[in-house]
Structure formats: C-alpha cells, structure tokens
C-alpha cells in the first residue's frame, strides 16, 4: 500500500535506470504519463483529498505558525508537552507548505527530483504526527497515573531525547519511502498507524478514567489543574478518533477491495482524514487557550468558535515548568 498512490499529486512510477552493460532481456516499455495514475475516470476520492489539502494551505499553515509563536512566547512558563507540540506544529507546517510545490510540479515542472521531495514530505506526515501525538499521550499518562515518577522525569533532557528519536524514525521512514522498492514496505505504515492508534486510545481512556475518579468525596467539580489535563486529553482523543480511525478501519482490509477501488477511492479518502490533521491539531490547541497572544479576543472568537465561555471565566493555570 503506497501512500496516496492515486492522488493527482502522485506522478507515475519512475523506473530505476539500468546499467548500460546489462544483458538481461527486459521489456523497456514505459507507461504513458497520467496525472491520475490510472484513475482518470474515478477521480472523486482524489478531489476529496485535494480539497482537504487546500484547507491545510489556507488555515493549517497560519495556525501551526501561531502555535509555534505561542510556545516561544510562553517559554518562561512551559508545560512538559510543549516540545512535542512544537515539533508537531513544525512538521505539520512543513507538510502543508509542500502542497503548492506539489501543484506546481504536477502542472508545470514535472521534475523527478521535486517529486522525491514531495514523497519525502508524505513520509514525514505518515510518521511524525502519530509518533508525536503518542509522545504527548505518554507524557500525560505518566503525569496522571504515576505522578511520583513524573516528578523524577520532568527534566527537559528526557523529552529532547525522545523527540530526537522520533525525528530519526521519521527521517528513516521518509528516506526509505523515497528510495522505494523495499519488500512489504507498505505494511510498515499500516503497522505503525495501528500501534499508534491503539496506544493513544487506550492511554487516553485510562487518563480520563483516572481523572474522573480523582474527584474528592462529595465534590462535583474537578481540581482546576486536573480539569485542564482532562480537557487536553479529551481533545487529543477527538483528534485520534476523527483523523486516525478512518485509515485504521480501511487499510487493513486492502485485500477485500479490487485494486482500482482501493487505489482510487479507499486510499485517497483514508489519507485525506490523516492529511487534514495538519489543520485540526493546531486549531484544537488554540481553542483550549484562555488567552491567545498576538490576537484580539474578537479575532479569537471568530476563528475559534469552539472556545467556551467557561474557559474565559477560569483563571489561567499552567503546568509545572519542565
């Protein structure tokens, strides 16, 4: 299963150049170029994916840059998950910025080198999002269920090391995706997304249950700090269900679809939900803030209608410094 193989952003397969002295009897016939890669008459799923990627350009890039600016602005009072949030926002902004390049390469350049860079960005999106969200879930999981251990592991060096590990895994996967030709490589993403989805879902459910049980006897309201953690974990749970559940449900059943249906409909639609997370993730983060720096309250209310009035009444509460 190759990522977005049916998207119009995906050019036809480039054959590796053979040595001039080869003696093998090889059919050198090259398939005619098609921007739809065999899906010329089944373009609905492709256009669905493209529409969501256009939203990433208009909304996702500014939202992710704003998240990075806010994290830098709040660097004196950081939360332990800020480094993961910043890396995730940076990767999402990078992926969103590659969409115009894809359009230009599709309709103008048609360059193999540019296509390799675009394919690398798809590998980054495939890997960095699930892994960094998993890191955020791990951070919250330890903080809520093992507070003593969390206090011992609160130093930023642990999160820096974990972030470097994620970057190494991301670049290794993306590089292998660009090289191509690896046997059963398409199953790597299926295994990764299934493992990440399972971990994040189980982790968040455990956190939510623990936070609900932590209310004092006879008290109906949760401690403000725990209430903030509850809302953060709940928002992550919404993200993983909306953005990651479709590919988790669809991709393992590849053999039940005909090759054309899977390539032209199932894959583009499944990845479209994954791609739009580059917009949803920063918007969810911004909607949880009591006050958004650099923006007026009127602008915030217009852009983030999901911000509740109750949040505006609650005084800002920060996690302990990392």
Summed up:
With 322 residues, the protein is mainly α. It is built from eleven helices and no strands.
Overall strand count: 0
Largest sheet: none
N-end to C-end Cα span = 40 Å
The CATH architecture: Up-down Bundle
Q: What is the total number of structural domains? A: 1
Q: Roughly what percent helix?
A: 55-70%
Q: Kindly identify the CATH topology.
A: Rhopdopsin 7-helix transmembrane proteins
The succession of helices and strands, N to C, reads: HHHHHHHHHHH
| Mean pLDDT across every amino acid position | 76
Name of the CATH first level: Mainly Alpha
Taken from the alpha-carbon principal axes, the silhouette is globular
Quickly count the helices. Answer: 11
Low-confidence stretches: 5-29, 306-322
Write the layout of secondary structure elements.
Blueprint (H helix, E strand, L loop, with lengths): L43 H30 L8 H28 L2 H34 L1 H6 L3 H24 L6 H28 L10 H27 L8 H17 L1 H11 L9 H7 L5 H5 L9
Helix pairs in contact: 1-2, 1-8, 1-9, 2-3, 2-9, 3-5, 3-6, 3-7, 6-7, 7-8, 7-9
Describe the structure.
α6 packs antiparallel against α7. The longest helix is centred in the middle third of the chain and has 34 residues, at 112-145. The chain is an all-alpha fold and 322 residues long. It has a single domain (49-297), classed as Rhodopsin 7-helix transmembrane proteins (Rhopdopsin 7-helix transmembrane proteins). The protein is built from 11 helices and no strands. The model is unreliable at 5-29 and 306-322 (pLDDT under 50).
